[in-house]
Amino acid sequence: MAEASRTSEARRDAVFGRWVVFSPARSRRPTDLKSHAPANPSPGAGAGAGGAPKPSCPFCLGRESECAPEIFRVPALPDASPWRIRVIENLYPALRRDAEPPAPDGEVGEVMPGERAVVGFGFHDVVIETPRHDVRLWDLDAGGVSDVLLAYARRVRQLMEHPAVKYVQVFKNHGASAGASMAHSHSQMLGTPFVPPSVTTRLNCMKEVFERLGKCSLCEFQSKDIFVSETHNFSAIAPFAASYPFEIWIIPRQHSSYFHEIDKDMALDLGSLLRTMLAKLSKQLNDPPFNFMIHSAPFGVSSSCLPYTHWFLQIVPQLSVIGGFEIGSGCYINPVFPEDAAKILRELDC
Amino acid sequence: MAEASRTSEARRDAVFGRWVVFSPARSRRPTDLKSHAPANPSPGAGAGAGGAPKPSCPFCLGRESECAPEIFRVPALPDASPWRIRVIENLYPALRRDAEPPAPDGEVGEVMPGERAVVGFGFHDVVIETPRHDVRLWDLDAGGVSDVLLAYARRVRQLMEHPAVKYVQVFKNHGASAGASMAHSHSQMLGTPFVPPSVTTRLNCMKEVFERLGKCSLCEFQSKDIFVSETHNFSAIAPFAASYPFEIWIIPRQHSSYFHEIDKDMALDLGSLLRTMLAKLSKQLNDPPFNFMIHSAPFGVSSSCLPYTHWFLQIVPQLSVIGGFEIGSGCYINPVFPEDAAKILRELDC
Ligand SMILES: Nc1ncnc2c1ncn2[C@@H]1O[C@H](COP(=O)(O)OP(=O)(O)O[C@H]2O[C@H](CO)[C@@H](O)[C@H](O)[C@H]2O)[C@@H](O)[C@H]1O
Ligand SMILES: Nc1ncnc2c1ncn2[C@@H]1O[C@H](COP(=O)(O)OP(=O)(O)O[C@H]2O[C@H](CO)[C@@H](O)[C@H](O)[C@H]2O)[C@@H](O)[C@H]1O
């Protein structure tokens, strides 16, 4: 790492319009408080030998009745377990599918000027990525990961049919410090009756770049420095203005607005690259807690937006805790330059 | 708490324009991962008897030479320790005061279309709130807390003189899960060469409300339900669309754009209310990790902005970890309705 020779730099990204402060010196600051983030025990730690279900885990094979209703399953290959992937309702949903969908701009109360409230209508689903408690997403082969991605896409297409659903946020939490409450490998999606704030900000920022430069923010990048890996259809990079150390974006090389339009070949390609990147992060950072999020276009945007919306998958290892500066300003401090993270991950064999 | 009778609701606040999903059912979800947030050991835990300095703490009385340079100190009252408060440079600054201030729009590189980078110029200071290792901010009396607030304001006024400083973010981290690396009671401020993203979003949102309703988002609130406590000059509320459980805002009752214009009387009043609120949170939530942030107007905004910018102090206990939904969408899930948090805190004797 060229750490010693580098000084601080502030960078603004062209997708979210966020300022990030890069400061290698920060990583040398001392602490007299115990780090809150213990190495994330592998989910398999509590499982019996041979991947037997953990007695209390409702996501394990054979415990389907302890879960909220199933939406669909991906059947197993011949002579294996009865399913490979299950998409189920979240038993403790943040938004409720049985609530009355909000009328357009239907307000239920206003406390201070300008505030709005709507019933908590929406869809909150869980994707169980494997029947086995001791298998992590990147332990599957590329085909296995691609099946998970295709299950996301299929469910997003179903939710898109509902007129009140404006966006579906697909995400994965791995490890307690990344927010996960369940160890069994899974991801989630939330279909919301509004376009979430970060999505609006992202579209506005990409639009501004497009209008000024005539280019999509994600269609080209000249620098080899931030490049990590690629396949026929996707590139993995450490983004120029990464908010988090070792943050990775996997971007389709062909301009494309909607994740859910991914086809089988694309999914296989993405599955293979996602698997490689998660394996690299796990190896380099000792199985860190992480989140990944899919950033797509909201449903029903006008066709004039499509030239500047380009979907991508963001992977964020959780190596430190954010503090008051980030919460207050929306601006992140990152001790690791993306060029340095990219070099390390690029050279790592996985 | 009326928890059982409530169902999910989505609310949008009138200051940041953020959507928050309130979902009491979420607090009942199980976990098979160890919570990452152990009760936050009181900073005094490691101190010797009688508040003797902790051997390794550079913020303690007598260890001044182990710190980065002092900017100013608040002298002690007669026959007490040589200082009560010290404002010092951060030894591991995110932004550097010795860097070349960026020329307006000076770019140092562009990797993808629309990205920008500037040298990491700025000011990163630490406010040591007490010479004693075992004293927490709310252990001081109202006068002691108000002196800390006046020290913030004085330093902000100094930084405002620098033409390249656009904003100063004042914040405090308490406890490891709130990002703190040092246990000794302190806060920080960062003077940035750009207006941070959340500040821009806040101003835009408050402007939109003002233009539509002719009212400042923070000048009035009708509901007694979210009210917690007040003094002559300030109100403490649980904001209608709180992103975090038990989040508190302390708002000047008279419209005012700039925190740093606070005078001695106002500071005493705020000191007393801040102290009460921190004591209430500590009592109710068992000394939780928390952050507080001061949200003020950027320097040199045009006078037409002043009618809708209203400064306030936000306190955020860190009771859970955010996950991929929040990181991806910018939208928070909060299991505790602010009305319920307000009622509990209002009725708590402190
Ligand atoms: N038997 C069962 N059947 C069906 N579903 C079941 C179930 N038992 C548990 N579940 C659900 O499974 C999900 C597991 O999700 P994760 O472990 O990814 O994190 P969680 O959603 O708890 O919270 C993290 O992610 C969210 C969203 O980012 C953050 O708000 C939060 O702070 C963070 O801890 C939970 O949402 C839970 O409700
Ligand atoms: N001898 C000395 N003299 C002067 N200064 C000294 C010093 N020894 C240490 N310091 C400084 O004291 C500060 C203590 O700050 P905090 O404990 O509030 O959190 P920190 O800034 O480490 O990071 C938290 O807050 C930041 C900003 O929100 C987040 O980026 C980060 O992830 C989170 O952990 C550090 O910034 C450190 O550099």
UniProtKB/TrEMBL annotation, chains A, B:
Segments of this protein annotated with the region Disordered: 26-53
GO molecular function, one term: UDP-glucose:hexose-1-phosphate uridylyltransferase activity
Active site: H186 (tele-ump-histidine intermediate)
Gene3D superfamilies: HIT-like (3.30.428.10)
GO process terms (BP): galactose metabolic process
Bound cofactor: record note: Binds 1 zinc ion per subunit.
Entry-linked Pfam families: GalP_UDP_transf
Protein name (database record): Galactose-1-phosphate uridyl transferase N-terminal domain-containing protein
Domain of life assignment: Eukaryota
Alphabetical keyword list: Carbohydrate metabolism, Metal-binding, Nucleotidyltransferase, Transferase, Zinc
Residues reported in the UniProt entry to bind Zn(2+): C57, C60, H133, H184
Cofactor(s) required for function per UniProt: Zn(2+)
Limits of the Galactose-1-phosphate uridyl transferase N-terminal domain: 7-196
Record organism: Oryza meyeriana var. granulata
